[in-house]
């Protein structure tokens, strides 16, 4: 696909992040199964539900743009999830693995923060205010999910992981 | 490598981000060559120099930890850079390609913000204050680089890209 203007770039990036969200929904349940901390487990379960809502929101965006609902392989998310899953496999079960899971999920969140930040700005600059608003909602959710993970890491998981000999 | 405690996790993540930084130093000159906006070109050139300094800072961290200076393939950065380079190839030369380059670089920055945020926190919790301080310096630089890209996008590049028919 040749991208020739800001509207085509918006669509290309929406296809990329749509695929990224689908990758997350596929992968996250396996990650959640490996979590020890009940607080972390519940945060990630909540974020999985939120992600399903974000996918529906992207489908609304495709509709508003008059574009087919279709993703395009997101190589960035593939790499991030592969790295995360290898790191989880390499970690000792328990608190340390929980810390690894938090780091992996924060890399996922930050990819999404960068991506939604860009598409929200494109939509705004194109005067597509309803699209921009939908994307801003997701951007806010990603930011909050990231902050929640930082709090869990700093207050509980890393503190426990530090105690591991 | 089996990661059994927070210190081992710190080292594993430092090896990952060290490789990521080296990938960036390899890739960024080619990206800079493709930039049209003088403001964006100079921001990325400055960030390339900054990245070289960040690599030296990581080498200091390895030394302080008494560990060999050695990276470990960062699959996340590989995926992000592949995605970026494909998107740049797909974009029409000029303002639109500049907007694509900004998006690609912001994904790189956010990966680093997530990663340095984690390692800075691990170092702090391990009481390695000099290591934490070095990592915080880089984290601040990455945050500033990201903000600068947002400003360039919003004030010039995307505005120009919007005008492209």
Task: Please tell me about this protein's structure.
The structure is a homodimer of 165-residue chains. With 165 residues, the first copy, chain A, is an all-alpha fold. Helix content of chain A is 84%, strand content 0%. The first copy, chain A, is built from five helices and no strands. The first copy, chain A, has helices at residues 6-33, 38-65, 75-90, 95-125, 129-163. In chain A, α1 runs antiparallel to α4 (95-125), α2 runs antiparallel to α5 and α3 packs antiparallel against α4 (95-125). The N and C termini of chain A lie far apart (52 Å). The model of chain A has no long low-confidence stretch (mean pLDDT 95). At the A-B interface, α1, α3, α4 and α5 of A face α1, α3, α4 and α5 of B.
Features:
homodimer, 84% helix, mainly alpha, 165 residues, 0% strand, 5 helices
Would you spell out the secondary-structure blueprint of this structure?
Two copies of one chain form a homodimer.
Chain A: H1 6-33, H2 38-65, H3 75-90, H4 95-125, H5 129-163
Helix pairs in contact in A: 1-2, 1-3, 1-4, 2-5, 3-4, 4-5
């Amino acid at each position: 696909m040749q991208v020739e203007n800001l509207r085509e770039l918006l669509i290309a990036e929406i296809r990329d992040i749509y695929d990224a969200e689908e990758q997350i929904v596929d992968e996250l349940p396996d990650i959640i199964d490996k979590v020890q901390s009940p607080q972390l487990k519940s945060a990630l379960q909540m974020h999985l539900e939120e992600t399903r809502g974000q996918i529906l929101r992207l489908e609304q965006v495709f509709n508003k743009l008059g574009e087919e609902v279709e993703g395009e392989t997101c190589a960035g998310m593939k790499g991030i999830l592969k790295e995360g899953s290898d790191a989880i496999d390499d970690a000792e079960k328990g608190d340390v693995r929980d810390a690894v899971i938090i780091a992996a999920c924060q890399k996922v969140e930050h990819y999404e923060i960068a991506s939604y930040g860009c598409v929200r700005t494109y939509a705004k600059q194109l005067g597509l205010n309803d699209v921009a608003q939908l994307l801003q909602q997701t951007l806010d959710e990603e930011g909050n999910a990231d902050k929640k993970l930082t709090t869990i890491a700093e207050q509980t998981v890393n503190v426990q992981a530090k105690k591991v000999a």
